[in-house]
Amino acid sequence: MKKILIDGDFLCRPLTGIERYAYEITKRLDTLASDHEIAIIVPSNTFTPPDYKNIDIIQLKTKIKSHLFWQMATVQSFLLKHREYTALEYGNTCLPFTPTIVFLHDIYCELFPEDFSSFRDKLARLYNQYQYRLIARKAKRIVTVSEYSKNEIAKTFHVPPERITVIYSSWLHFNEIKPDYSVFSLFPALEKPFFFSLGTISKRKNMKWIIEYAAKHPRDTFAISGSRMPTTKDDKLNGSAGLKNIILLGYMDDAKVKALMERCKAFLMPSYYEGFGLPPLEALSCGAPIIVADTASLPEIYGKTARYIDPRDTSVELDELLKVPVEAPCAILEKYSYDKSAQALYRLITEYLNEKE
After folding, report:
1. How many structural domains comprise the chain?
2. Angle between helices 119-138 and 147-157 (to 10 degrees)
3. Residue 19 belongs to a domain with what CATH number?
4. How many other CB atoms are found less than 10 A from the CB of residue 47?
5. What is the pLDDT of residues 51-110, one digit of tens each?
6. Can you tell me the distance from the alpha carbon of 103 to that of 93, in angstroms, rounded to the nearest whole number?
7. Considering only CA atoms, which of 64, 65, 72, 38 is closest in space to residue 52?
8. Domain span at 261
9. Which stretches of 37-90 are assigned E, i.e. beta strand?
10. pLDDT tens, 7-45?
């Protein structure tokens, strides 16, 4: 009898991005699953072992020291010994020697080679390219987070579209967060109107756009929050040092981010590449207007609720753009639900488990 084994390494990392998505979807899968149909494998140093009712927890004595070693050695070894399981990997990783259901959120490393210049960047890109190809060849099912990403994966790696399922992300975790307004005491300049941008400070987030626009509009204030990634850092951000109207906030926890989204003039995402692009959805849930790039998945996700900019052109006037009417976000917020996404994933799992070998 086939069973699903979720790789629980996301429980050993801060809940951001993919980890948040995995946590929220798995929590809801637990309410849908039958007894012993799904298990999750976790290391001994899991932050807080979840209290699942229907998902079996397999906690090993092994500690995660390297997520790569955990996946490619520990989880792979377990699956080779327990052939009844098929791994469910949330994080763009396919195990080479056993069947796998894989979430491939985007293929950034394949599409933008120019963003990877240092030796370390190039090594990271090569590994991710290897994983993309392994997923395309070996994965039993591929899951991604937008029709845009599905089409790019299918076209780039010649994957039949029927092997790829789109399961969207959601904003609903933001309902559980209480805003922390102390951030405005830490940064008094934010008491006046400001544009807010959030994200890991990597090249695709296109902070260059904000810097160039801010230089042309010294009366506007821009707050940027985000931690630097170990690869593909955007050195253009260093150009903000001489601009008094750009405030670099560094890493902000969710409570401070929510406070900033509630009070910002508009949330700004000039990214030239996103597989989904979650922060504007969180901003909409806080009542903030959103201004996003007209590229990649963003028009698909945000439709007529967003104002759009060209990520290569800063000649737009943001204040004028904010006067353009948009649709209320109610329908968009209702569409992107963890419950709906968990149900879609469970349907996929059930189809796979019932499929004849």
Report:
1. 2
2. 90
3. 3.40.50.2000
4. 11
5. 899 999 999 998 888 889 999 999 999 999 999 999 999 999 999 999 999 999 999 999
6. 8
7. 38
8. 172-335
9. 38-42, 56-59, 85-89
10. 999 998 888 789 999 999 999 999 999 888 999 999 988
